[in-house]
Amino acid sequence: MTHLLSDLRAAIGDAHVLTDPADLSPYAADWRGAYRGTPLAVVRPASTSEVAEVVRLAHAAGVAIVPQGGNTGMCGGAIPSGDGSQLVLSLGRLRQVREVDAAGGTITVEAGVILADVQAAAQAVDRLFPLSLGAEGSCTVGGNIATNAGGTAVLRYGMMRSLVLGLEVVLPDGRVWDGLRSLRKDNTGYDLTQLFIGAEGTLGIVTAAVLTLHPATPARATAWVALPSVAAAATLLPLLREYAAERLTTWELVSRPALELVLAAGLADPLASDAEWFGLIEIAGPAGASVDDDLERALAAAVEAGLVLDAAVAGSPAQRSGLWALRERVSEAQESLGPTIKHDVSVPITSLDDLVARLGPALESALPGIRPIVYGHVGDGNLHYNLSRPASLSGDHFVAQAAMLSTIVHDCTVELGGSISAEHGLGSGKAAAAAAYKSDVEVDLMRAVKNALDPAGLMNPGKVLAPD
Ligand code: FAD
Ligand code: 2HG
Ligand code: ZN
Q1: CA nearest to 377, candidates 221, 223, 218, 250
Q2: Residue 88 pairs with which residues in a beta bridge?
Q3: N or C: which end of the chain has fewer CB within 10 A?
């Protein structure tokens, strides 16, 4: 190990090989403190060639590597094991926007570029990079790619995998695959780009990417609505599309307990309705598009059909930000209730009401007083069914029940034809659960891919695929 550390220092400079416990601590736990590990060291290379050299040295020494971007992930994917044997490789110094091609509709960025900076670079040339999520001020493009991130505009633009045209990847043995192509069509064999997307750093380290830019959508119309039921939220989707077509960008759901959390954190309630369910709608288009009109007509039809009880429409950018905050601040606000047992599930949108109707009573009978904080991307059939402890139970006792409670949520999701991880990935936290719901054939295929690309098992071991 001493040799490895001195070789790493020679390769990337003393200042970028951290071993002091105080320096390691920000990299050793996730943002919630739900996952903790002990890095052997943290390495901070500044270029693709430095990443490749670090990986070659670690590979030769038989030391495992855990890639880390902004460390905003939800399932412990970027956190090393607790035995002090794994290197954390931070991509934070790969921060260059290499090229913006407004005419071709692409941007080429390094893995450590912050998502909000990609959005800003696109905006500077009157284009849109549409991936949008609550952590956009601190998560990185590499992390977005590795987790195939979703967010609040998936309905219109798809998940991260539909926004990536090409990748540059350092492979587990230190070779570099240069797949930085900007082609819209390329049928020359297996799609390696897509293979690395959503692999959570288990197949290689993404160092750069070519991303798709879309036309800017400066015209935006935003509404906060009160709903009679979850079923109404599902039924509203085709109605909204009837009026907004592809301009419908966001259709998000917030339950009353989730709303109460953000109101308690100081946000203003635009409706003061006693409904149990609320939603955020956004329609967006080019300058001059009739988005306000489309929204108004859609809302009138929805009220007429009994699908919306009441609505507040943003009349200014400040009001729009206020409505968005009611949705985007829920995740952070729930931390005030103590440790959260998180679930990121998806079902066919027409089964969402069934899911909610079954889970509420099942969880209450398993743990009386439990507080489900339910919200999410209803237009994608994706709910964050996040559990907080009964007021009378300590956080530790609550967390001790996590496996039992997650089994209830996941069993019900799978019975309804759903997925136990819609957008956050598996990391270490959900790898075993995912395998339990997959067929042997599917798990075998996944292991075959892993073994083919990383035969030594040194690239983020224990993530996505639980140890045998
Ligand atoms: P990290 O957390 O650092 O890493 C995540 C995974 O990617 C790990 O497995 C890590 O090893 C791997 N990784 C990181 N960089 C690389 C790389 N360059 N090459 C290979 N592997 C790499 N997610 C959604 O999908 N939708 C949301 O709406 C959403 N909202 C969020 C809101 C909040 C407030 C927060 C805190 C998180 C949210 N997330 C959401 C979670 C989301 O997965 C992350 O925010 C983001 O995609 C992860 O990026 P990161 O740079 O922080 O990655
Ligand atoms: C969101 O949609 C994020 O707000 C975070 O995906 C969800 O904290 C969560 O579980
Ligand atoms: Zn989400």
Answers
A1: 250
A2: 42, 66
A3: C
pLDDT (tens digit per residue) in 405-432: 999 999 999 999 999 999 999 999 999 9
Domains of the chain (ranges plus CATH)? 2-90 (3.30.43.10), 97-215 (3.30.465.10), 219-331 (3.30.70.2190), 338-423 (3.30.70.2740)
Q: 280 CA to middle of ligand 1, Å?
A: 23
The strand pairing partners of 281, in sequence order, are 223, 251
State whether residue 306 is helix, strand or coil. coil
Q: Give the residue, by CA position, lying nearest to ligand 2 atom 9.
A: 331
Task: Indicate the top mutation candidate among 31, 74, 377, 386 to test ligand 2's pocket, ranked by most ligand atoms within 8 A of CB.
Answer: 74
Q: Which residues contact 289 (CB under 8 A, 6 or more apart)?
A: 217, 219, 247
Which of 31, 66, 94, 139 is the pocket-test mutation for ligand 1 (most atoms within 8 Å of CB)? 139
- In angstroms, what CA-CA distances link 404 with 22, 339, 398? 36, 16, 11
CB 43 within 8 A of CB 8: yes
Q: What's the pLDDT tens digit per position in 2-51?
A: 799 999 999 999 999 999 999 999 999 999 999 999 999 999 999 999 99
C-alpha span between 294 and 244 (Å, rounded): 6
In terms of C-beta density within 10 A (0-12 exposed, 13-18 middle, 19 or more buried), how is residue 421 classed? Answer: buried
Q: What letter represents residue 33's amino acid?
A: G
Tell me if 132 CB under 6 Å of ligand 2: no
Q: Which atom, in ligand 1's list, is nearest to the CA of 30?
A: 2
Stated pTM of the model: 0.98
How many angstroms separate the alpha carbon of residue 313 from the centre of ligand 3?
23
CA 384 to ligand 3 centroid distance, Å? 7
